[in-house]
Write a structure and sequence with these properties.
Layout lengths: L1 H15 L1 H39 L3 E6 L6 E2 L2 E2 L8 H10 L4 E13 L2 E2 L2 E2 L4 E6 L3 H4 L4 E4 L4 H6 L3 E4 L1 H7 L10 E4 L2 E9 L14 E5 H5 L9 E7 L5 H16 L9 E5 L1 H43 L1 H9 L4 H37 L9 H27 L3 H6 L2
Parallel strand pairs: 7-12, 9-11
Antiparallel strand pairs: 1-13, 1-14, 2-3, 4-7, 4-13, 5-6, 8-11, 9-12, 10-11
Helix pairs in contact: 1-11, 2-9, 2-11, 2-12, 3-8, 9-12, 11-12
C-alpha cells in the first residue's frame, strides 16, 4: 500500500509542477523519439528488402562483369578484365545444362526521353534490354499485356514493356497503352505489356520508371559504347546452390578462356549476399540510432537530476513532516525515485508515439509501403526511460532520505 501511495504522491507532485515536468519530459521524449524513430525506419527498410528478396527468391545467383578498379597491390597493377559480351552470355545460356531459368539483361541508358503523340516523359527513363526470363526472375509482374515471345527475343522485334510511371507520363485520361507506339532513342516501339508498380528506395532509376526491350534490340543501341551484360540464374532446389554456381563458374571460365590458376575474369554472387549487405547496413544504422538516443538521453538524465535536486530542496519541510510521522528513509527514497520514473515515462510514451510516427513517415518517403510497429524497440524505449529515472532520481532521493527531521522542519 505504501508503494501505491508513493506512486499517487509522485503523480500529485508532477501535477503541482506541471510546466517543469513538461519541459523535462520533452527532453526525454526527444531522446526516445530519435531512438525509436531511427530503429522503426530501419525495421521498415529491412522488411521491404526481405519482401523483395522473398519475391526474387534466395535460389538465384548472378554472373556479371568484374569491377575493374585499376589499382595496385604489392607494387603490381591489378589486371583489368573485359566486360561480358553478348556472344558470351548467349553461349552461356545455350551451354548451361543444369536445370534452371536464366535471364540476361543490359542497361542501355538511364536518361532516355520517351514520346507518345504530343506527350513526353522527363529525360530520366531507364532503358534496358532483357530476355523473356527477366521479369519472372526479378520478381516483377505484369498488370496488363504479355511478356516477350521467343520470336521477338530471337529477332529483336521493336516491342516494349513499360513501367507504371512511364504510363502515367505518356497516357492521359486512363488511355490503354497496349498496342500503341512510343518513340525512344530514335526508334518506334509497340507497347505489349505494363509492369506492376514495384516501388523503390531513395528514388533513382527503377522498374517503375523503365522500359524493357528485347535483348538483341537493345544491344543494337550499344554500337557507340560498351554495354555490360548481367546473367541471373534461378534454380528450383536452393540446397544445390553451390553445385549450380560451380557449374556456372566452370562454364563461364571456359567461355572467357580464363587460364588455370588465374582468378575469374567475371564475378558471381548469390542473392543472399544482398541480404547480408543490407543486414550490415541496417546494423550500422541501428548503432547510430542507439548513439544518438544515448547522447540525448544523457542530457535528459542530467537535466532531470538537476530538477529533482531542486525539488528535494523545495520540499525539505515536507520530508521533515513525513519523517516526523514515521516515514522511513526507504519510503522517502522510494517516493522521489518513483516521481523521477513517472516524469521519464511520461516523456517516454510521448517519444515512442512520435518515434513510431516519424520512423514510418521516413520509411514512406523512401518509397516503402506498410506500417511498422516495432514492439521490441517500444519495450526497450520504455525500459530505458525507467533506467534513466532510476539513475537521475537515486542521488536526489538518497539525499532526501538522509535529511534530519528536526532541521528539515526548521527549513524556510
Amino acid at each position: 500500500m505504501n508503494l501505491l501511495e508513493n506512486i499517487k504522491e509522485g503523480l500529485r507532485s508532477v501535477n503541482a509542477n506541471l510546466l517543469r515536468t513538461i519541459l523535462t519530459a520533452l527532453i526525454v521524449a526527444i531522446g526516445i523519439t530519435s531512438l525509436v524513430g531511427i530503429l522503426t525506419a530501419v525495421d521498415g527498410i529491412q522488411a521491404s528488402v526481405k519482401d523483395s528478396l522473398s519475391e526474387l527468391g534466395v535460389n538465384t545467383f548472378d554472373v556479371y562483369s568484374k569491377r575493374n578498379r585499376g589499382g595496385r597491390r604489392s607494387g603490381i597493377t591489378e589486371k583489368t578484365a573485359p566486360a561480358l559480351k553478348l556472344k558470351e552470355v548467349v553461349r552461356f545460356i545455350d551451354n548451361y545444362k543444369y536445370p534452371a531459368s536464366v535471364s540476361v539483361s543490359t542497361s542501355v541508358t538511364g536518361n532516355a526521353e520517351l514520346k507518345y503523340g504530343s506527350e513526353k516523359t522527363n529525360p530520366n527513363v531507364w532503358v534496358l534490354g532483357a530476355n523473356d526470363e527477366y521479369i519472372a526472375l526479378e520478381g516483377l509482374n505484369l498488370t496488363s499485356g504479355r511478356n516477350f515471345s521467343s520470336i521477338e527475343i530471337q529477332y529483336g522485334t521493336n516491342v516494349a514493356i513499360v513501367g507504371p510511371d512511364v504510363v502515367k507520363s505518356l497516357y492521359k485520361e486512363n488511355k490503354d497503352p497496349l498496342g500503341t507506339e512510343i518513340s525512344l532513342l530514335g526508334g518506334k516501339y509497340k507497347v505489349i505489356g505494363v509492369l506492376e508498380e514495384k516501388g523503390q528506395i531513395g528514388g533513382g532509376n527503377g522498374p517503375d520508371n523503365s522500359v524493357i526491350l528485347p535483348l538483341i534490340n537493345a544491344s543494337r543501341m550499344g554500337t557507340d559504347r560498351e554495354l555490360r551484360y548481367n546473367i541471373t540464374v534461378g534454380i528450383t532446389n536452393p540446397n544445390e546452390m553451390e553445385f549450380a554456381m560451380g557449374e556456372a563458374t566452370g562454364l563461364m571460365r571456359k567461355i572467357r578462356q580464363d587460364k588455370l590458376g588465374d582468378p575469374n575474369s567475371f564475378e558471381i554472387d548469390k542473392s543472399e549476399s544482398l541480404a547480408d549487405t543490407m543486414g550490415s547496413i541496417t546494423s550500422v544504422l541501428r548503432i547510430a540510432g542507439f548513439v544518438i538516443g544515448f547522447i540525448t538521453l544523457l542530457g535528459a538524465c542530467i537535466a532531470l537530476m538537476n530538477i529533482m535536486m531542486v525539488s528535494v530542496t523545495e520540499r525539505t519541510r515536507e520530508v521533515g513532516v513525513r519523517k516526523a510521522l514515521g516515514a522511513t528513509p526507504l519510503r522517502i527514497r522510494q517516493q522521489f525515485i518513483i516521481e523521477a520514473i513517472v516524469v521519464c515515462l511520461l516523456g517516454g510514451v510521448g517519444g515512442v508515439l512520435l518515434g513510431v510516427g516519424i520512423g514510418n513517415l521516413f520509411a514512406s518517403i523512401l518509397g516503402i509501403d506498410g506500417f511498422v510497429m516495432p514492439w521490441l524497440w517500444i519495450g526497450i524505449g520504455l525500459a530505458v526511460c525507467i533506467v534513466v529515472g532510476l539513475i537521475s532520481g537515486y542521488y536526489p532521493a538518497n539525499k532526501a532520505s538522509r535529511l534530519d527531521p528536526i532541521e528539515s522542519l526548521r527549513f524556510e
